[in-house]
Amino acid sequence: MKVNFSKYTALQIERDGPVLRVWFDRPDQLNAVSRDVHGELETLFFDIDRDEATRVAVISGRGRAFSAGGDLDWLVELNADPEASARAIRADRIIQTALLNMETPLVARVNGPAVGLGCSIALYCDIVVAHPRAVFADPHVSVGLVAGDGGALIWPQLIGYAQARRYLLTGDHITGEDAARLGLITECAVEEELDSAVMHWVDKLLAQPDRALRWTKLSINGGLRAIASSVLDAAAGFENLSQILPEHRDALQRMRDRR
After folding, report:
1. Beta strand 56-61 with 19-24: parallel, antiparallel or unpaired?
2. SS3 69
3. Are 117 and 92 in contact (CB under 8 A)?
4. Phi, psi of 63 (to 5 degrees)
5. Per the confidence metrics, is the pTM higher than 0.85?
6. Per-residue pLDDT for 259 more than 70?
7. Alpha-carbon gap, residue 35 to 238, rounded angstroms
8. Cα(189)–Cα(74) distance, rounded to whole angstroms?
9. Element (H, E) at 14
């Protein structure tokens, strides 16, 4: 099936032969995830996977960030509206289900901060290349939230529970260099070589037999899918509860005051 990606307007999508390039495209807001971006993410990964012209997809951010996580104004709206909060949490679950069930290889080009949902999307990718000044963080806890959009699942599987606790319980960030050293990501490349490093991995993936590549990816992620329901359903429920609590509202207000 051929997918018409022109329907996407909050995300920028470009085709380069068998390679689909997806861009977070709010550079002035550090590519924060707005309601519109979130809505398009809800269908994006399903569409990539059913598009017969796409063999590899690359996701990155315009400007100096990959994605700085949830848009502050949108988070304030969700805190004030329990029904909207519940809808957003359900949408998060749909996004993660799509990522876990994808066959199409995904490469993350991490050009700057990857935070919250942006971080989870990057870490769900099969190949993650970042430059040394890029940072990865899931600071849900620091704003009174539970990491319900993937962090509680993917961080422990990549770097073990001890290190995952270190970062998820404190909201601390990790640099691209340290992320590569710990095994959180695939490779750290100096900034001027980031694009060539990404293309190196894209070319290696394209050189593999397509079906074998897709089904190998699906098999590797079988372990994640096996534990996903128990982890993600609980984390999403806790995030939904925490998203409407006063301590989250107070944390958001402090962030707004610092702007």
Report:
1. parallel
2. coil
3. yes
4. 80, -140
5. yes
6. no
7. 21
8. 33
9. strand 11-16
- For 169, list phi and psi in degrees, rounded to 5: -85, -10
pLDDT score of 81 more than 70 = yes
Question: For position 244, what pLDDT does the model report?
Answer: 83
Pair 61, 23: CB distance under 8 Å: yes
Residue with tokens 């995030």: 239
Domain membership of residue 199 (yes or no) is: no
Host domain of residue 157: 5-192+210-258
Which segments of 75-210 are extended strands (E)? Answer: 106-110, 114-115, 127-130, 135-137, 174-175, 187-188
Instruction: Please tell me the predicted confidence (pLDDT) of residue 149.
Output: 85
Lowest mean pLDDT among 36-40, 80-84, 175-179, 244-248: 244-248
204, part of any domain:
no
CATH number at residue 78: 3.90.226.10
Overall number of domains in the chain = 1
Helix (H/G/I), strand (E/B), else coil: 16 = strand
**Phi, psi dihedral angles at 61 (to 5 degrees):** -125, 145
**CA 168 from centre of chain:** 15
Greatest Cα pair distance, the chain, in angstroms, is 53
- Give residue 252's Cα distance to chain centre: 21
| Mean pLDDT computed over 65-72 | 94
Percent of the chain with pLDDT over 90: 80
Average pLDDT over residues 71-90: 89
